[in-house]
Design a protein that fits this description.
Layout (H helix, E strand, L loop, with lengths): L4 E3 L1 H4 L13 E11 L5 E5 L6 E2 L2 E3 L6 H12 L3 E15 L4 E13 L9 H5 L3 E5 L1 H16 L6 H21 L3 E7 L18 H10 L2 E7 L14 E3 L9 H16 L2 E3 L2 H5 L4 H10 L11 E3 L2 H6 L1 H4 L4 E5 L8 E4 L2 H12 L4 H13 L13 E5 L6 E8 L2 E8 L13 E2 L8 H12 L3 E9 L2 E8 L6 H4 L3 E6 L2 E6 L4 H15 L2
Parallel strand pairs: 1-6, 2-7, 9-10, 9-11, 11-12
Antiparallel strand pairs: 2-5, 3-4, 3-8, 6-7, 13-16, 14-15, 14-16, 17-18, 17-20, 18-19, 20-21, 22-23
Helix pairs in contact: 4-5, 4-16, 6-16
């Protein structure tokens, strides 16, 4: 069997000067396994010494088959009995320091029975050896990040460097087999852009890099402009479709996208995110409908009033007079169209301005009224939809939490000077001590909506959390791209993970994980 790869020191430690001395190598046979549990999750073995995760497995004893060695190693390292399944391949590596020529064979395997306790040596127990079970996509992403650290010279353990490169390739091979021939259609706007980026003014996602990441996961990304969608020539039933929204002035192009997305949904395309989640973007009115429809009490401590006309609003004015509210026009972003209503004058004047529209039809009706003397049924001149959210007093800012799959990025946004709004204030901090329970709350909300990624605006008062707004696509990427770390829930604890932000990597990882959940 030809090896999948042959690694030498220069491949593993490319940042170092490697001495090409003649070395006599001794063969060493090892067995590794990609072990799946009953939920389709994969076992990774880590320790507290170097914080890296690897596949279970190790050296094969004399007179022991590779398959039997894998079974033994899995029982010791992950506490499980396994059935060895298909061979993934073999990787050779030459470790000059140890004079070892390693022949690494890897198989897929499945859990038999229940997960048990680890059978650790005294040294392994001292080093804090432990197991995590994650999706195949997440395991691939974890090892992919470790490869990046290896390339930057951040891996100081000799054998670990080889093992990271080896296990990363084994996982990629399994993922390629799993996702073989899978396609994802991605639709760009008229400028050829998909989502936004803060890398520079007017920047967007790098589609070449995004395609490369999806290819690593075994998916072919088919990039097309919205304008090429032809429902007669192409049937998208059963196809995964990535798309975006638009915040163009007047939302004229957004209306065009709206029609196409509805067409894709009607034809049976698998939309990412869902049509329901798309409707909530740049649409505060439907966002509140989405909130009301959820079976999640934690987000219902805000109950908004929704209005389609000023006339509807004025019928409730006696109730509205009793409290302070934040008025938000239906289609707003970055605090535009957001007003604080405290006194009765503001509650009338601002509502009129926010909802004002104009119809020439009324002028025609007025002329007919003069001519005929018959009073017509006039059209409202205040038909811009808006919502009222209860005003939470005493907040000095809020928390922007952006979630990509299992990674949580947090930004604290202080209010604008002499203002109640935090969005767009540019008074931002990311390296802060997080309030107790913030990440748990964000995770509960994210899990409830079942999206690949999500942005949440959260306020905190008296240890209570308030979800002001949420988005599922085309949200700003400042929180991710300006961060130097993220938070991940591991073994019941939130770990702060230092990393270089990579928007394209997180989109691909999140989408593939979402697809895996919905196959």
């Amino acid at each position: 069997m030809n090896p999948l790869a042959i690694f030498k020191e220069k491949d593993v430690f490319s940042h170092k000067e490697i001495s090409e001395k003649n070395v006599v190598f001794e063969d060493r046979l090892t067995g590794k396994a990609v072990v799946f549990d009953n939920e389709g999750k994969v076992a990774l073995v880590g320790n507290r010494v170097n914080s890296f995760y690897l596949l279970p497995g190790g050296g094969i004893d004399e007179n022991e088959s590779v398959e039997d060695g894998i079974k033994r190693e899995c029982l010791e390292e992950i506490g499980c009995q396994v059935e060895v399944l298909d061979k993934i391949g073999m990787i050779e590596d030459f470790r000059n320091r140890d004079r070892k020529h390693c022949l690494n064979h890897c198989y897929t395997a499945k859990l038999i029975g229940e997960k048990g306790g680890l059978k650790l040596t005294e040294e392994e127990e001292k080093n804090g050896m432990h197991v995590i079970w994650v999706s195949l996509e997440e395991a691939t992403a974890i090892l992919g990040k470790e490869v990046e650290q290896l390339k930057k010279g951040e891996v100081n353990f000799y054998n670990t460097g080889f093992n990271i490169l080896r296990d990363n390739l084994f996982l990629k091979e399994v993922l390629k087999t799993k996702n073989k021939m899978n396609k994802i259609f991605l639709f760009t706007d008229y400028r050829g852009q998909f989502y936004s980026s803060t890398k520079q003014k007017g920047a967007a996602v790098d589609l070449v890099r995004l395609k490369d990441y999806f290819e690593e996961f075994g998916f072919e990304l088919m990039v097309r402009p919205f304008s090429e969608i032809d429902f007669r020539a192409q049937n998208y039933r059963g196809q995964w479709v990535l798309y975006q929204s638009s915040e163009d002035p007047g939302l004229f192009y957004r209306s065009y996208i709206d029609d196409l997305v509805l067409g894709l949904f009607s034809q049976g395309a698998k939309l990412i995110p869902s049509l329901f989640q798309f409707k909530a973007h740049h649409n505060k009115h439907f966002m509140e409908i989405a909130r009301d429809l959820q079976n999640l009490p934690e987000i219902k401590n805000i109950q908004a009033r929704r209005y389609g006309t000023l006339e509807d609003y004025l019928r409730d004015i006696e109730e509205v007079k009793k409290e302070d509210f934040v008025l938000k026009t239906g289609n707003t972003s970055k605090s535009r169209g957001v007003f604080l209503l405290k006194n009765f004058r503001e509650k009338i004047k601002i509502a009129k301005v926010a909802s004002r529209t104009f119809s020439l039809k009324n002028l025609q009706y007025f002329i007919e009224w003069i001519k005929t003397g018959k009073k017509p049924l006039l059209i409202s001149n205040y038909r811009q939809k808006f919502i009222l959210q209860p005003y939470i007093q005493g907040l000095s800012g809020d928390y922007r939490v952006v979630v990509y799959n299992n990674k949580y990025y947090v930004l604290y946004r202080a209010n604008r000077s002499n203002d109640f709004r935090a969005s767009g204030s540019m008074k931002f901090k990311s390296d802060i001590e997080l309030p107790l329970g913030l990440l748990d709350y964000a995770k509960k909300v994210f899990d409830n909506f079942d999206a690949p990624y999500m942005a949440l605006d959260i306020g905190i008062k008296d240890e209570s959390f308030f979800l002001f707004e949420f988005q599922f696509l085309s949200f700003g990427q400042y929180t991710l791209e300006k961060s130097k770390f993220c938070y991940q829930l591991r073994s019941g604890n939130w770990d702060k993970i230092t990393e270089t932000p990579d928007l394209e990597r997180e989109i691909a990882d999140s989408v593939v994980a979402y697809i895996d959940r919905h196959k």
